[in-house]
Each structure stands twice: as C-alpha cells, then as structure tokens.
Design a protein that fits this description.
about 550 residues, Nucleotidyltransferase, domain 5, 2 domains, seven-stranded mixed β-sheet, six-stranded mixed β-sheet, 17 helices, 26 strands, about 20% strand, globular
Length: about 550
C-alpha cells in the first residue's frame, strides 16, 4: 500500500525530557518524528516542576515539523492521540489556563500529607493497613508515602497554596491537559485517572470516582474532571485554532489515549496476558497485562486500568534509569560551568556504549545504586540516594560507567523479582515446579533499549531472554497510534503483536551468571545496611 493510500496518526509522546511528535501509520510504522527538550525546574525540599506553556509550545513545534515534512499528505492524517508523563498535576481555571507550574511525578513536597493519609495504629512499613486495604480494594493501589502521586500534589496545593486550590476548576493530569489544549474538553480516560487513586476500578467497564476515597483524602470531587471515558473513545475534533496552527483538517479526531506507561505497554507489542516488558527511559518499569485486578502492596506493585479497555495491568515504577546517564553527562562530565562553557558536548551515549563493551562483567566488583531521587519499587523510600561502592585505585572511569549500566539492571531485577512472584500465583502450568521460570522472556523498549550492550547486560542480570523492539524509543508514540487506530476502527488489539517488529534477541551469557548473582545479593545488602543512614541524612 502506498503512502497516499495509508492512513496515519499524529502521535504525541509527551515525556519528562520533552515531547516527541511522530507520524505513525495505523499499523504502527513510524514515518517521521521530531523532539524538543523542555526545562525541568528542581527546588530544594523536593520540588520538581515544568511549565505547561513549554509543553504546549514544544508540541506545536514538533507537530508542525513532522506534518510539514511532506512525508504523508495531511488528508491521510486521520487522528491525533497523545500519551503523556503520568502522575503529574496541573491546576487550571474554567478556561483551562494553568494557575501554576505543573507538579510532575518526581515531586515529593506532598510527602507529609501523604503520610498523614496513613495515620493510625496498625501499620506496615509506614502504611495504615486498614486504610491501604480500602484503597487497594477499590482503586488497585494506594497513595505512596513518597508524596509523588497526584493525590499528594493536590493536598500540598490545598495546604501550602490555598488561594490556588480555591481558584482551581480542575486538577488535570498532563495527559488530560494536552487533550484539553487539543479539543477544549475537560476529560480523562479510565486508565489515566486511575493513578489519582480516587476511582473505583472494580467494574472495569464503568470506572467511576469513589466518594469514599475522595472523602478519606479530604479533597473536592468537583475539582476533578467530570467526564471519564475509555482510552479508545473519541473526545472530539481538534479546535479550529489548533487545526490552523498545525495545518490539519478541521475534522481531525482526537482519541482520548492513555498515559505513558499503559501506552508503552501497548507499543511494546506485549499485549497478551502475562507477557512482560521493561521500559528504560529517564525512569524504568516492569509491566504486564493481567486479566483481573491483583497487586502487591508490600512492594509497591499496583493494579491499574490498562489502555486496552476491559483489561488491567500490574504496574510499578522506578525513579531513575537512563536518567543516571544524563546526570553523568550533564552534572559531572560536561557540566556547564566556567571551565567547560565553550565545549561542545558529543553524543556521549554512543561513547558510553563503546566504553562499556570493553569492561568485563561485574566492573571489578564495583556496585552503583541509581537512587538519585529515592525509590518507589520494590521499596517506597524517598530518602535513599545513589552511591558507588567498593571503589579502589585500580579502577578507572570505564569501570564507573559500566557499573552505572549494571546498577540500573540490578534495580530492574529487584522489581522484576516481585513481578514474577505475583504472576506465578496466577499462572498455572502443567507440572510447574517451584523453580520453573514463569517469565522466560521480556521485551525491552525506551531510549535505553537502543543500547545493544545494555540489552545484553539486562539479559545477563535478569537471566532472561531480552527482545529488543524495533525503534524502541518510539514505543510510546507507537502505543498511542495503536490506541487511536483501534478507536477509529483501523486495526484490532490481537493484530498488534504481529505489527510490532523485534530487531534483536539477547540471550543470557552463562559465563556471567555467578558474577551477577553474587553482585545482586550485595546490591540488596547495600540497601538494607544503608537505609537508616540515608534516612538520617535526607530526612
């Protein structure tokens, strides 16, 4: 089929680093894409914000760039679907104007109010067991103690900025804010709103707000988007202003979509029950679809509404993965200070790959913990921090860089272990033994999945086959396109896996098995030994 006959989706992948706009065919082929970085504003005390104007301007710029490239005709762009960073909060007035910067998923200023939600006598790891069970029963998860959930953002605004709280018409997720800018409609999808932990998801086909949970949180239901829809539902056509600015047809449909994690799960091609993928971007996660609502509250693994209507996902999120390499590049190697202000920063990620390939597995027993901004899974601890352990004079920066790659893999294994245990409880195989591998392979997506050496490290550390999805950095955009394509009637869910190509397969190297098993045990020991020290230092 020629490009003039095919139909396309303008897929917006609105990540923490900035938005990426892509033209994607209804079968998931990425034709063109453009990215624009947006600033991150970090404040002492745990504040992490972004300016929604920066988001919107970058989305317009990148969208115009790919539309104007001429690689497809405007008449064949049949829909728009956005997938945004999750667990963020944008307070807006009745006209949709934001009243302050967006509080994003890294922000911990609401931690005291999140902890206050779990007040009571019977606790486990800081969580009130009775209240947590009420939350889990209804919403599939509970507000974390870290303060990084929207529920904590809203409470922080309510107590610290009551004037903004009073003026707020709706608290919107980043996903819903961009959809408002596209259509002028205040709405959220069942999947996206779920991470507010204020909806009842037991009836997967009729998700609604839980009055009990909202009352427990002491928030105002009227300040939440009233209209909740499926991810595949059409919100409406783009506004005339957006159509004119982008040069699109005025009847171009906007599909509700889903936030980054559920969209990426679809874009990975792992859409069948229990098929697992890992995402390595700024942060990371280990996720699989489930046919029912199950969770592990003790290891911060929740159960949320999938971007696929009628399905659930078990979800978790680790705060920093590829972000460790950005930190190394921007804050250490090429920090913009007086000494390096004239230096041009090279493509360091390719340089890192070449360096890491030459260093033996285990980095001479150097261990890096990637907890630059605390951690959520499998432990909810916002005071722990990154570190390098076992440095000696015989080491060089080559060992340090490989240790960072390996440290992220150890962290992912830490989460993967508990995901696999949860899956094991519900997957029944004939003659399945205690030590049988329940998840023999995983797909890998995200910017980190572009690194072949990192994919091999993940295979070795996890001791699982790792399938590198083609164009792994486009998984979110591809997922958004698939959601729109299903919603507009171009494809069906069971056709997605055959559309999603695998570029490489990495199998575990048995020679590295003992090395990584031993170092992973020490990795866990480091947390057990250091957690009290970090709590004293970063309280």
């Amino acid at each position: 089929m020629s490009n003039t006959q095919k139909k396309y989706i303008l897929a917006i992948d609105h990540g923490t680093g900035g938005p990426k706009s892509a033209i994607v065919s209804t079968e998931g082929e990425v034709i063109d894409w453009a990215f624009e970085e947006v600033p991150l504003h970090v404040y002492k005390g745990g504040g992490v914000e972004q300016d929604p104007n920066d988001w919107w301007n970058a989305i317009l710029n990148t969208s115009k760039k790919v539309i104007n490239s001429g690689k497809v005709t405007v008449e064949n762009i049949v829909g728009i679907c956005n997938t945004s960073q999750w667990s963020g909060t944008v307070p807006v007035d009745k006209e949709g104007n934001h009243l302050m910067n967006a509080i994003i998923w890294m922000d911990t200023r609401g931690a005291p109010y999140a902890k206050n939600l779990h007040r009571g006598l019977l606790k486990f790891s800081g969580y009130n067991i009775r209240k947590a069970l009420i939350w889990l029963k209804r919403s599939g998860g509970a507000p974390t103690l870290s303060g990084k959930d929207p529920i904590a953002h809203m409470l922080w605004i309510k107590h610290e900025h009551p004037d903004i709280y009073d003026r707020t018409y709706n608290f919107l997720e980043p996903q819903d804010y961009i959809n408002f800018k596209l259509t002028g409609k205040f709405a959220s999808s069942y999947s996206t709103i779920n991470l507010n932990w204020l909806t009842d998801i037991r009836d997967i086909d009729n998700v609604k707000y839980s009055n009990k949970l909202i009352k427990m949180a002491k928030l105002d239901k009227n300040k939440l988007p009233a209209e909740l829809v499926n991810s595949t539902d059409v919100l409406g056509s783009i506004t005339s202003e957006v159509a004119d600015r982008l040069g699109l047809e005025k009847d171009t449909k906007v599909v509700a979509g889903a936030a980054d994690i559920p969209a990426a799960a679809i874009g990975s091609g792992a859409v069948r029950d229990y098929e697992t993928h890992i995402y390595v971007g700024t942060s990371d996660w280990v996720i699989c679809h489930f046919p029912f609502k199950k969770q592990d509250m003790f290891h911060n693994i929740g159960s949320v509404v999938s971007g696929i209507p009628g399905r659930y996902m078990i979800v978790n999120e680790q705060e920093i993965a590829g972000g460790t390499l950005s930190f190394l590049r921007d804050k250490i190697l090429y920090h913009k200070d007086e000494l390096l202000k004239e230096e041009v920063v090279p493509d360091v990620y390719k340089i890192f790959d070449r360096i890491v390939e030459k260093v033996p597995a285990g980095s001479n027993n150097l261990i890096f913990t990637p907890w630059l901004i605390g951690e959520r899974c499998p432990i909810d601890d916002h005071t722990i921090r990154a570190g390098l352990y076992n440095i000696s004079l015989e080491m060089s920066r080559e060992h340090l860089i490989r240790a960072i790659f390996e440290g992220v893999a150890y962290n992912v294994k830490w989460a993967f272990t508990y995901v696999e245990k949860l899956v094991r409880k519900f997957v029944k195989k004939e003659k399945m033994k205690k030590n049988d591998v329940i998840i023999p392979e995983v797909r890998i997506i995200g910017g980190g999945a572009q690194s072949d050496i990192w994919c091999q490290i993940f295979a070795d550390v996890l001791n699982r086959t790792v399938k590198q999805v083609k164009d792994p950095i486009q998984a979110n955009a591809r997922g958004a396109a698939y959601i729109a394509s299903v919603g507009l009637g171009y494809i069906k869910w069971d056709e997605i896996q055959q559309c999603c190509e695998i570029s490489n397969i990495f199998t575990p190297n048995p020679e590295n098995r003992q090395i990584y098993d031993n170092l992973f045990k020490e990795y866990i020991n480091i947390y057990d030994i250091m957690k009290k020290t970090y709590k004293r230092l970063n309280k």
